[in-house]
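Hi R.,

Here's the chain you asked about this morning:
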Amino acid sequence: MDTVVALHRNHYGEIINFVTSTGRIISYRKALMEAQNGGITGLQATANPDGSLILNPEQGQSFDHLPNLF
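And here is the predicted structure, written out as tokens:
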């Protein structure tokens, strides 16, 4: 099963892509779908108060420890 090993951020600091342990580069939206279906470990989809889904790392971590690849 894939895990997230790095990410791509835009110039605003927002995550736009994830790099997985198998070398795939997937969009935020694709990672959201895979996290909901259990295809990626270490990510969980949670709902904002407005009902939109966002990705969070599991176990209260942050994405700050992942390298930002270009």
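One quick note: DSSP finds one helix and six strands in the chain.

Cheers,
M.
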